[in-house]
Amino acid sequence: MPLKFLSFPNLIQEYILKNMELCEVFMMSLVSKKTKYCSIRARIKIPKILFNIRKKAQSIRIGIDEKKMKTKTIIRLWEVRKLKTRRAVRIKIGDDFEDLAKIRSQESQTNEQLCLIKVECIDETLMKGLYDHFKSLFCESKSNSLWMETSMLFSIEKLPIYENVDKIFLTGESESADAKDFESFITRYPNLDSLRIQPEIIGELDVVIDAQKVRLTNAGKFGTSLLEKFDGRHLLFSKWIVEEKQLNEFIKKWMKGEGYHNLETIQATLILNWNIRMDDVVNELETERFDRTKRPEHFNIDNETLFGFYSPPVSFAGNDTYDVIRESDGKRASVRASTNSFWFAVWNAGF
Amino acid sequence: MTSPASSSEVKYLIESSEGNTFDVSGAALRQSNTFNAMFLNIGADGPIPFTDYNEATLKKVFEYCEHSVNEENYSGPKHQDDLSKWDLNFFNEMDQKMFIDVINASNFLDIERLTSYCCERIARMLRGKNTQEMIKVITLPTAEELEAKQKVEEKKAAAAKKVAEKAAETAEKTETLEELPVQQLVQTTRNKLTRKYLSFSNE
After folding, report:
1. pLDDT in tens, B1-51
2. Residue closest to A341 by CA, chosen among A261, A247, A275
3. How far is A11 from chain B (nearest CA, A)?
4. pTM higher than 0.80 for the full model?
5. Most buried residue among A166, A212, A314, A336 by CB atoms closer than 10 A?
6. How many domains does chain A fold into?
7. Which of A225, A167, A224, A155 is nearest to A197 (CA)?
8. How far away is chain B from the Cα of A87, in angstroms, using its nearest Cα?
9. Does residue A30 form part of some domain?
10. Interchain CB distance below 8 Å, A35 and B138
11. Interface probe, candidates A6, A12, A38, A133, chain B, greatest B C-beta count within 10 A
């Protein structure tokens, strides 16, 4: 006797769907219009989503262990040069995309099921359609992540805006991007919790970055431009090119309360052979030396703040350390520069 | 035989679609939320009619309930891998028809544990399948079948339209025919009267 899924009562259909892997629910929704509506009706909740957007391959993953940054792929979209028509089916995703594709369930290296979709061309219609389809099926989490290849910045206007994204990772360490392209990308995602940028960004920034924490792997001169427009809490720079005068300006601005009201830490490594003369950094600024009665020696920065990287407590007690006070509220910050590194940390009242 | 007092020794009579009755313990029946809502507090005079389901299906469902009487309270779905040997035998014994009937009966009786296990079993049938294989498992019409069905429906609609048009045409004609005898009658009567009048006047 055939197993007629659609003849089951709605509740049973929902129970069945809720017992399925998310990738299978997604595949069921591609089978027919009716199964799509069944899947929508089941209102399946999913944990944090990670959209991994690359030119030739994309994936939608869900977070299964946030602390260990462990994710599980649900859908993988692959662009192939020539799609073999054997076993290929015509699929309709979203309102506008309709084309031949190969869809199958695949077991990942960690023995988890995922839905693999092979197509000849991943274009904006497919990307938008896939996102709309996915969004209609599952109850999304309020905190999603977006990993995007730098090369995608050139066609950013054509890409869908992924909702509830609060973490962005722009990948491509050996690549570079124009500051204007980066701006038009970042303005689409306000209120970010974290922003991690691997490529080198070339040019000046005109918009305020309100992400709570930012990490630049190739900070270069752009790091200084970003610092000027930064309104968040933590900055983590690598390969930064900065001059003493610029740091002096930054500290002056902080002391006068003209900006950086939320800033808590800056940790930076400079490009090779680039040293900072601390005396020039604090030139003409009212500073204090380390006083054990006023603050502790070490400053702890947690892993989460540092994008999962561990950092030992930073010592602010040596000759290369100065304390500065903010005029408006009397908050104390410590500045330290040593060979190739720069630190700035604002002490909380209770430390 | 049936009473509001719900002790495990109390037996209830269940009536199936064939009109047959059989005993089920109160403890087993209490796993059915439908039963709890309908009969537990008020009791039932005579057999409880679950006449949408046949005896074999109901017996199978209550066999499961009787078995799980002593298991701990249901707390969410259990993975199939964690099922006991008895549970596995219970499911493996059934053919597909019985399995579907059991799901439907279990859903009607609102027996969470059984419904959940059955649904997980179906979900397992779909594991690792691609969309075409899924269509086969859940017996969905393929795109070609849908197209053929649509063509048949279109043909049927066209035929129905033709029939409706013909009927309308016939009705129009009948209307004219129905009108004719009346007019003819009036005319004939008028002619007759005229002739009579003329004959009178001639006399």
Report:
1. 444 444 456 788 889 999 999 988 888 888 899 888 887 666 667 788 888
2. A275
3. 8
4. no
5. A336
6. 1
7. A167
8. 9
9. yes
10. yes
11. A12
